[in-house]
Amino acid sequence: METPKTPSPDATAEERSRELTGVAAADWAESSADPRYRAAVVDLLGALAYGELAAFERLADDAKLAPALADKAALARMAAAEFQHFERLTGRLREIDEDPAAAMEPFASALEEFHRLTAPSDWLEGLVKAYVGDAIAADFYREVAVRLDSDTRALVLAVLDDTGHASFAVEKVRAAIEADPRVGGRLALWARRLMGEALSQAQRVVADRDALSTMLVGGVADGFDLAEIGRMFSRITEAHTKRMAALGLSA
């Protein structure tokens, strides 16, 4: 396999995907001939699909807590968009002759545990959770997408598109802090807890799945070396800090 070029540490995930060669320059038909790579992609799509299903359920629940009818409708539209992402992922799994339920099952426990440990106590915590928690996961998956074949990468990046929740959350949280500055301290602590739990669960998922961990460290595809893993987490942390600032919170 051709050795990938070394991308700029400051490049975005999409920019780095254009700089890579090897598997990242091939399509699914070519890349899936390696059973280890195929297993890793099935794991990745299963994890993403379960995450989208959980996001749909969570946004539907958050809509019940919304203080105004317009807010309920906005969250309902976002939930519908998440379910469409779920349908695309499970459709892709069926296209490659994989059972979506079987692909998602290994990730159910870890993701349910994350949601159990980070159950919001009110509407604002729910907004921050979706904004911060989903964004951390999306940043990680975008980093991984750089190493994927062109067909899978295009699908992953498409389903990670923002459903509108980011701007909605920023608007509502900033308005709440402006109305009562004391809210900011509580939400900042909550967001830091979400960051820690999200990273912990991500590490658990990867560690439990041999195919995924092998792909990430370069056993298949164009994996990360230790230095790049460090840079990846630095980029994710920096993006989290910027999102916190957008909310009007300290990281």
Order of helices and strands: HHHHHHHHHHH
Average pLDDT metric: 83
Q: Which band does the percent of strand residues land in?
A: under 5%
Radius of gyration, whole Å: 18 Å
The number of helical runs is 11
Q: Uncertain runs with pLDDT below 50, 5 residues or more? A: 1-10
Which structural category fits the helices and strands?
mainly alpha
Structure, explained:
The protein is mainly α and 251 residues long. It contains 11 helices and no strands. α4 packs antiparallel against α7 (150-159). The termini are far apart. Mean pLDDT is 83; it is low at 1-10.
Output the keywords:
globular; 0% strand; disordered N terminus; 251 residues; mainly alpha
Q: Secondary structure elements and their pairing?
A:
Blueprint: H1 13-19, H2 28-31, H3 35-65, H4 69-95, H5 100-117, H6 123-145, H7 150-159, H8 165-179, H9 182-208, H10 210-216, H11 226-247
Helix pairs in contact: 3-4, 3-5, 3-6, 3-10, 4-7, 5-9, 6-8, 6-9, 6-11
Task: Summarize the entry for a quick read.
With 251 residues, the chain is mainly α. The protein has helices spanning 13-19, 28-31, 35-65, 69-95, 100-117, 123-145, 150-159, 165-179, 182-208, 210-216, 226-247.
